[in-house]
């Protein structure tokens, strides 16, 4: 009887112990959102190169996830190459045309520069690009990758480089001192919209305050292109809005927007309203934006720009490399495209400039840089936009 009682007691104890073992907390596996980043800045990059010419470039990227980036061991973080930006079907591990012999491989330019990059710290990816031997215009796309685990989100590290016999040139995004740029730079915002777990879109916008007292408009709003913030399946868009009071510095004000307003899906413009982020509302107050917003009553009073022929066109926005830029070109005429009026210019319009600001040499806003058609920049005319808003 004693032995039987002991056996029962031992069995109960074993069951209890076994249950306790299974109830012990387990380590959480890394989720895709644990690896994320933001683009801090980049070095000057080549706009054109001679065949076979090399150029040293670097990218500074901040670890905004919760996992430590490693240079050695498991889940090594490297820079990877892709075939395109702006769609979810791009080819990963693409053998880049700008491969140099000092790369890790044809689709891995470089590792991170330190053994470990902790959340909140930045990594420098410094590497050489080499132009292919044949002439043409080529595109270079880069995204951080956790080898053996996942690609990080595509945030549009994108360069377009023309290879030819002419002397190579480069673009320096940190040296724009033109008065036009200084007058408008702090009113142009950077917009990043997360469409799903792996894909985001980045563009630009211009900040306005409703001095026209239009009842259909919020007190403060951002004018941008519809294609910057519209999701492929028409779900509600969630976007981050960053305003840099001094675009030559890294300090910024950060807000969010949910959804958008537009006239119809055939007209490529939209209005988004900045909102405070609940967790950071004490740090970034909406009132701070008013000092940087342009009065929309000034724009509405502008008559149609019938004679731009003798004026330069300036395009201000955030190309996909992350820094605010100014490009300058001439007026080439008007064009009706998909029931909308566009200004043609040879000012450079890069991906990421979409939704930004276009002004003329007299300092008047003339439109929204929207897309590149061949080598022609297409700027959505501002006058028709505000006529549609008012009506």
From TrEMBL:
Stored Pfam families: N_BRCA1_IG (PF16158), Trypsin_2 (PF13365)
GO molecular function, one term: serine-type endopeptidase activity
GO biological process, one term: proteolysis
Occurrences of domain Nbr1 FW (ranges): 48-143
UniProt xrefs under InterPro entries: Ig-like_fold, Nbr1_FW, Peptidase_S1_PA, Peptidase_S1_PA_chymotrypsin, Peptidase_S1C
The protein's name: Nbr1 FW domain-containing protein
Organism (species): candidate division CPR3 bacterium
Taxonomic lineage from the root: Bacteria, Bacteria division CPR3
